[in-house]
Structure formats: structure tokens, C-alpha cells
Amino acid sequence: MTRRPLFPARVEPFAAPPNAPKKVANSAGGTPATGRNGLNIATAARAQGVGLDSAAVRERMVRRLAEQGIAHPELLAAMAAVERHRFVDSALVNQAYEDTSLPIGLGQTISKPSVVARMIELLLQGVDGAQRKTGRLLEVGTGCGYQAALLSRLAREVYSIERLRGLHEKARANLRPFRLPNLHLLFGDGMQGFAQGAPYASIIAAAGGSSIPQPWIDQLAVGGRIVAPIEGGGQQTLIVIDKLEQGVRRSVLETVHFVPLKSGVA
Ligand code: SAH
What we know:
By secondary structure, the chain is an alpha/beta fold.
């Protein structure tokens, strides 16, 4: 059933660096919509928002997250910096900064920004609620790589594992331009964790199973935290596991909707 992750490969930088950060290509296609062809103002603004000045659109997204209670300054800065529109298909670029989950292929989805932010904030809080930068981190479910890009700004080392080869390759391509030397993309079954990177200060899962796999608890450092969805009674809830000297403490939070955690690779 399980195959060992093949390699803790670093994301190799492009030989030539991509465009300067602010000059985002108009991935919606064509020249910017500046009123030509009778485009209405809202359409033009949206097209420009992701085509020319995506930083402003992200700032608006971050303001909404802050209004919803996300307070961790480095997390908000990461959400403002990482270009979510680079991780979705060009047809979905206009929705990239809306608070909505989006398909990323092979039946999987990228979570909506408010859920991504909520889970990362929980992860960074630690047992005593103190905000911290996390040490080694394991992400189960790389998907398109968006959350991995955020995490690489918030943790010392990030190991991100994906069981679908197609998405692992997609994430690799999506992340290459970001040149993130502390992010290691792995192809394998994340239900086994990734023992070579352990012990982890933090483990985060973007897919929900019926229980927390034992390898995650084994590979978590004392003082470490897991944030993951768990399936039960026909619904999923967000779970926080803290590994303490005295044992494991489990907190059950709100209802969530994630794709299923599956074993093996495909
Ligand atoms: N964080 C991702 C979200 C991806 S959706 C992003 O930012 O895009 C969840 C992902 O978990 C899917 O890609 C799915 O294939 C993957 N997944 C499910 N079970 C897994 C497992 N056992 N090991 C690794 N990845 C798994």
C-alpha cells in the first residue's frame, strides 16, 4: 500500500529569474482590460486587479481576514505576499482572491483563504496560545502548493507531501519561480508522515481522515501541534492535537469541509 517518499527534493530555482514580483503577467490572457471592447468598469477592475496590481487585491483579502479575527502579523504578511492566482488555472484567476475554495485538478481543491489562515494561525499559536515561528513543519497534502508557499515563510523547514503524482508535479512547477530553499516537496503517502524530517514542531493536513494517523503523533516533537480535519458522524471537524510531556491533548473546533485523506499513492 505504501511507498516511501522518493526524495526530499528541494525546489530548484529557474535558471533565469521570473518577472519582477509586482509585474504579474496577465494570466487571464490578452492585454489589460482598460475599457476597450466595451468592457464594463467592474470587469476591467477585476482584470486589472489580478493582471496588473494583484498586490492591492491581496491587501483587500488580508484586510477581510484581519476583520474576521486573524491577527498573526507574519501570517497576514505572508498572505499579502503569496500570489494565490499563480496556483489556480487561468480560467479561475478572477476568483483567486475571493474567499472561496477552487478546483486544482484530479478532483482536489485549494481551501478558501479564510480556512487556510485559520489553520495556520492555530498551528502557530502553540499550546500556551503564544505566537511563535515554527521549527520543522510537515504539510500533508501539497495540492497546488499554495499553502506550502505560505508555510515556507512561517517555518524554518517545510516538508510537504502529496500522494497524487500529477499534483506533486504541478506544485513543483507552481513553486519553482518562488525559489524557496527551505521547502521540500515529497511524493508519497502522508498518512505515514515523513520520518526522515521528524521530529516536527507542527503538522498540518489539508485532507480529512477518520482519525489522526499514529505516525503523525509519533513524529511530532513534545511541545508540538497538529492541526487537521477529522471525519466522523457524516461531517468533518477541525482538530488540534498538542503533544505534551504528560501525553496528548485533543481539542475539537468548528465544522470544516476538506477532501478525504487517502492512503497509498496514485
Ligand atoms: N494545501 C493544499 C490543499 C490541497 S487539497 C493547497 O494549498 O493546494 C488536499 C490534498 O491532500 C490533495 O491534493 C490530496 O491529493 C492530498 N492527500 C490526500 N490524502 C493524502 C495522503 N495520504 N498523503 C498525501 N497527500 C494526501
